[in-house]
Amino acid sequence: MDSDNVISLARPAQIEPARSVLEEIARDGAIKMLQAALIAEADAFVQRFAHVVDDGGKRMVVKNGYQPEREILTGLGPVPVTKPRVRDRSGERKFTSSILPPYMRRAPSIDALLPVLYLKGVSTGDLSEALAGILGPNASGLSAANIVRLKEGWKAEFDAWSKRDLSGKRYVYIWADGLYFNVRLDKDRPCILVLMGATADGKKELIAVWDGHRESKASWQSVLRDLKRRGLTDAPHVAVGDGALGFWAALREEYPSTREQRCWVHKTANILDKMSKSIQPDAKALIHEMYLSPTREDAMSAFDEFKKRYKAKYAKAVECLTKDEDVLFTFYDFPAEHWIHIRSTNAIESTFATVRHRTRQTKGCGSRSATMTMVFKLAIEAEKKWRRLNGHALIAKVIEGVQFMNGEMEVAAA
Q1: How confident is the model at residue 16 (pLDDT cuts 50, 70, 90)?
Q2: Predicted pLDDT at 136
Q3: Are residues 171 and 212 in the same domain?
Q4: Could you report the per-residue pLDDT of 151-192, keeping only the tens digit for each?
Q5: How far apart are CA 143 and CA 222, in angstroms?
Q6: Are 156 and 195 in a shared domain?
Q7: pLDDT tens digit string along 56-89?
Q8: Does the residue 17 lie in any domain?
Q9: What is the pLDDT of residue 71?
Q10: pLDDT at 159
Q11: How many C-beta atoms surround the C-beta of residue 259 within 10 A?
């Protein structure tokens, strides 16, 4: 489903914490980017004099460890860095970092750091602008070659992650979504397929970031087959996603035992889109009653009431609801503590909402490859902040096959 059609259901009180998470992601990215830039600058200096050797053929200019760590004050707070040392055995050449001068303790443009350093830090031009915000416009360490070297490092990291061995991995729950981003050099908006999962100990992990052809069955099947080929053989117990995804057809072929749960956030948006604005508040309240009820029986009562109340005037809205009846209430067969996690794909939506907003404002990255790398880097950083599932100890019961009814474990008859 195109992200532009999704209506955000977040309450105003939920918006501010998301900003704090974004700031933490940006700070972590700033630390890594600055450290990588320092190393790239030192490497470039050493490479520049690679032809200078002594009588024995040994290089005269070599790297020589690191200086003690120090902190630089930036708009994101103190940023710890360690500057590489470079030694010239002849004493004729002295390496001085243009990025981090010897006595620098404060970034010249700390206010410019947050908006450009990480969220706009993928294309060559944006990276130069980002580092210039810290160092000033005349820093020689901002050469195109150094920027390209940094980007190549990120891409290599993403390529290695995409081929990692998944043998022994097990994801009890998975979330799937197709995210659309603007790409300046591509006439089409690429659909990036994202898959997240919850492990046996309740931790959320990024599983896959895939360049798909929209959200087709073939694209999703390529993702799932690749995961299986790399060792992900245990089928998830529940998959959560939007009903419009080609993901479901692919899932039924690759992991036929996995239960399906339609995302209530997407479903709510799709239903309300087919109703007049004046009736939407009442309709939304009834939809909320469906998936917030303590029992399946109460949920179905609200479900039947919705059909009765709106079938005559809003037949398409009712059809949108009823066509997925069998996969809207799957969560009732799993621990109640897990319901908040498996009723929707908010785990993905909340992570990438600010990223998509930023790419719209900047008209996107320059290429599909750069977009993929950005999505990967941001998601990996965000992963460090993802909290474990509520009641994660109950996941072991799910794996064991213990039956749940209305979120409670069924007690076997004596």
Answers
A1: very low
A2: 45
A3: yes
A4: 677 788 899 999 999 998 999 999 998 887 766 545 666 688
A5: 38
A6: no
A7: 888 989 988 888 888 776 655 567 888 899 988 8
A8: no
A9: 76
A10: 92
A11: 17
Burial class (CB in 10 A: 0-12, 13-18, 19+), 103: exposed
Q: How many domains does the chain have?
A: 2
| Contact call for residues 170 and 207 (beta carbons, < 8 A) | no
β-bridge mates for residue 171, sequence order: 199
Residues 255 and 273 in one domain: yes
Distance (Å, rounded) from C-alpha 116 to C-alpha 129?
Answer: 7
Residues 212 and 124 in one domain: no
Residue 109 is assigned to a structural domain of this protein: yes
pLDDT range class, residue 355, cuts 50, 70, 90? low
What's the pLDDT at 249? 94
Mean pLDDT score of the chain: 80
Q: SS3 for 144?
A: helix
Select from 106, 135, 160 the last residue of a domain. Answer: 160
Q: How many DSSP H helices and E strands does the chain contain? A: 15, 11
- Same domain for 149 and 175, yes or no, is no
Query: Which of 22-36, 234-248, 287-301 reaches the highest mean pLDDT?
Result: 287-301
- Let me know if 57 is exposed, middle or buried by CB neighbors in 10 A (0-12, 13-18, 19+): exposed
24 belongs to a structural domain? no
Domain closes at, from 121, 136, 160: 160
DSSP code for 378: H
For tokens 């339609």, the residue is: 262
pTM of this structure: 0.67
- Expressed as residue numbers, the domain containing 144 is 36-160
Average pLDDT over residues 356-363: 52
Q: Do 262 and 327 contact (CB within 8 A), yes or no?
A: yes
Question: Could you tell me whether strands 84-88 and 61-66 are parallel, antiparallel, or unpaired per DSSP bridges?
Answer: antiparallel
Q: Is residue 28 part of a domain?
A: no
Name 10's Cβ contacts closer than 8 Å, sequence gap at least 6: 18, 350
Least confident of 41-50, 285-294, 390-399: 41-50
Contact between 101 and 52 under an 8 Å Cβ cutoff? The reply is: no
Q: Do 381 and 318 belong together in one domain?
A: yes
Tell me: do 249 and 344 sit in the same domain. Answer: yes
DSSP characters over 63-131: EEEEPPPEEEEETTEEEEE-PEEEEETTSS-----SSS-TT--B-TTGGGHHHHHTTT-SSHHHHHHHH
How does strand 238-241 pair with strand 84-88?
unpaired
Total number of residues shown for the chain: 414
Question: From CA 256, how far away is CA 94, in angstroms rounded?
Answer: 64
